[in-house]
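Bump. Still looking for Extracellular matrix-binding protein ebh GA module domain-containing protein structure tokens.
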Amino acid sequence: ATTLDGKMGDLKKAIEAADAKKSTTAYTQASDTKDFDDALTAANTLNSDKGDNEDAEAVQAKIDALTNAKLDGEDQLAKAKSDAIDKINALTNLNKAQKEAAIAQVNAAETVAEIQP
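Sorry for the wait, here they are.
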């Protein structure tokens, strides 16, 4: 029971970390959040009063699923920035100062939508 109590404490921490991650670029700009959302839902269900009685191993599996769910938002944003900068540099009708200003705007962007019109 002590091991299970410890695992449930770890599960609560993993849920808190996952909830916090939902406001990060990794989540908000991710191409797909389904695996992460499903893992968080399963963890929250297990952590609730209505959750199944699971052993420590099953609780650890939920923690692992939540921890290992991949979010590619940082990669998506970096790729969008890189692609936009390549396009800006390829424009022949802009002078150096105009290109630098446009690139600075791209680098300051925090979402893919800010970069891609």
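The chain has a mean pLDDT of 92.

Edit: fixed formatting.
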